Amino acid sequence: MTSPSEPRAARRSSAASPLTTPPSDAAVPVVDASAVRDMEDVGEVLGNACFGCGPDVPHGLRIRRTGHDGSTAYAEFTVQPEHQGAPGLAHGGILASAMDEILGTSAWLLGGRYVTGRLETDYLAPVPVGSVVHLTARCTGVDGRKAYIEGEARLGGPDGPIAVRAASIFIKVPLEHFTKER
Ligand SMILES: CCCCCCCCCCCCCC(=O)SCCNC(=O)CCNC(=O)[C@H](O)C(C)(C)COP(=O)(O)OP(=O)(O)OC[C@H]1O[C@@H](n2cnc3c(N)ncnc32)[C@H](O)[C@@H]1OP(=O)(O)O
Q1: Which PANTHER family has this protein been placed in (predicted)?
Q2: Whose C-alpha lies nearest to ligand 1, atom 25?
Q3: Is the interface score ipTM higher than 0.90?
Q4: Class for domain 46-179, per CATH?
């Protein structure tokens, strides 16, 4: 339930703009049963040095994936002092990175490999350093190579108040996108 005293963005049910809303004829997302294994395999390709989820990246977010259900992905991370912007509060770009990671995880559950094409964020509440941030994302439609993914970050628990909402388009790419020399 929202009230007029809440931020304007909180009164909307989704972060999606017309650009991140799937077309009316978009396909319902189908989850690939092999996608989870694929996600583990990709660690070998990427070397697990990911800023978002690499467990040993010193100043990374060290996001922990906690589960999935269909295209819905769950994860969490703890905001560290090196993630702050204003004193004592998480930097907005750091929170966008966290959203990118959980949205990308949902996209990868569809099978194949996806990269971020467009990322929109609504910041609804400040996130203090030391917070455990609970991340969720799900696919709202697939149109050709484009997967429309929405998600949110909550504080205080998986059902806590929403601090950040995001909507995105992820684009399916071949494996060579990651392996070719540039
Ligand atoms: C242990 C490890 C586990 C790992 C788990 C995995 C989790 C991973 C989590 C990681 C999370 C972090 C993830 C990251 O951080 S990924 C890193 C950030 N993203 C990038 O670096 C992507 C850079 N961009 C590109 O490489 C190219 O532009 C791509 C590949 C995206 C498209 O170039 P390409 O030449 O291939 O294709 P195309 O141009 O014909 O486009 C194809 C279709 O897409 C539509 N389109 C394109 N762009 C946009 C846009 N901005 N808004 C709306 N639509 C867009 C386009 O209109 C067209 O649609 P249609 O005309 O067909 O309808």
Answers
A1: ACYL-COENZYME A THIOESTERASE THEM4
A2: 117
A3: yes
A4: alpha beta
CA distances from 28 to 54, 90, 98, 147, 174 (A): 31, 35, 25, 10, 22
82-124 pLDDT, tens digit each: 999 999 999 999 999 999 999 999 999 998 899 999 999 999 9
Taking the CA of residue 170 as reference, the ligand 1 atom at the shortest distance is: 31
Using CB atoms within 10 A of its CB, is residue 181 exposed (0-12), middle (13-18) or buried (19+)?
A: exposed
Going from the C-alpha of 153 to that of each of 1, 3, 137, 157, 158, the distances in angstroms are 18, 20, 9, 10, 9
For 145-168, write each residue's pLDDT tens digit: 999 999 999 999 999 999 999 999
Return the percent helix, strand and coil in the chain, to nearest 5: 25, 35, 40
Cβ(114) – ligand 1 distance below 6 Å? no
Q: How many residues does the chain have?
A: 182
